[in-house]
Amino acid sequence: MKHLVSRREFLKAGSLLTAGLLIPGLADSAPKARPLRYKIAVVDLMILKRQKLGALPLTKEIGADGVELDMGGLGQRETFDNQLAKPEIRQQFLDKARELGLEICSLAMTGFYAQSFATRPTYQRMVQDCFDTMQLMNVKVAFLPLGTQGDLVRNPELRPAIVERLKVVGRMAQKAGVVVGIETALDARGEVELLREIGSKHIQIYFNFSNPLKAGRDLHEELKILGRKRICQMHCTDEDGVWLEHNTRLDMRRVKQTLAEMNWQGWLVIERSRDANDARNVRRNFGANAAYLKSIFQAG
User: Fold this and answer.
1) Which of 24, 41, 93, 274 counts the most CB atoms within 10 A of its CB?
2) What are the record keywords, sorted (predicted)?
3) pLDDT category, 34, cuts 50, 70, 90?
4) Interval 127-177: pLDDT, tens
5) Rounded to whole angstroms, how far apart are CA atoms 54 and 68?
């Protein structure tokens, strides 16, 4: 009899467990998908503090979580005018970032906006200098714009040289344990094909929202075509004119939904979207945009 009661209790417990799996609220202990995380950064060059220690307290004042630091000017030098190569200056940046609770999300080689990545004879030294600095500062993403001289839409004849050089950079990045995010003038399908040609997981796309918007392409479709694994980081702004919250061609809540559908998370970096009537008011412009992005991407 004692054995029979025990069996009945066992069967009753089993039926309750089964019911718990069917009734909402009784199965809350089941594993849930982790929410996607987004962090907001600003560009030191665009807040007028290129490689200046003051970029860090200003970033904190703006309300961002981190900063993209520039590698310095290029001009006709053999490599960047990189103050972060100096141990004492680099340590000041690291110490100040730690003190303020900020992160350095990426290093930018913006010198290539106006200089030719396809023809500069010392490109490997420039890129290696960036990688060396990244390793010393524990930064995992480099930004490499192909710029006006590397525009593959207007200058398709440069493609073989650029692809060959990016293959080299990809091998260098793999050795350094970093990722290089390139910005091109191609549409998303063109970038997918370019990445296939390069053939390195260490070369990805640094997506800039303003590029498809300026060209009249569908921002959300472009993101989906590229997909989660091809995008390392994003410049999450548009051309200057109005703040993000007033931009009628950029629906940031829909962007968040698109990124969620892609399962993409990471750094959203504020580059522009300044008020055209007050473009040099850094605190006002970047503070407003940072607050707006946080209200959408970090709410709840």
Assistant:
1) 41
2) Isomerase
3) confident
4) 999 999 999 999 999 999 999 889 999 999 999 999 999 999 999 999 999
5) 13
Query: What are the tokens at 43?
Result: 């560009």
Q: What does the alpha-carbon distance between residue 74 and residue 47 come to, in Å, rounded to a whole number? A: 19
Q: How far apart are alpha carbons 159 and 153 in whole angstroms?
A: 10
Contact yes or no for 276/247 (Cβ under 8 A): no
Residues 6 or more apart whose CB falls under 8 angstroms from that of 18 comprise none
Token pair recorded at residue 260: 């969620």
Which tokens is 102 given?
């900020």
Alpha helices (runs of H) in the chain, residue ranges in sequence order = 2-22, 55-62, 87-100, 123-137, 159-176, 188-198, 210-215, 219-226, 252-262, 282-297
DSSP state at residue 239: S
Domain 35-297 adopts which CATH fold? TIM Barrel (3.20.20)
pTM of the model: 0.88
The closest alpha carbon to 287, from 243, 255, 236, 256, belongs to 243
First to last CA, the chain: 55
Q: What are the distances in angstroms from CA 26 to CA 13, 19, 20, 23, 175?
A: 14, 8, 5, 6, 50
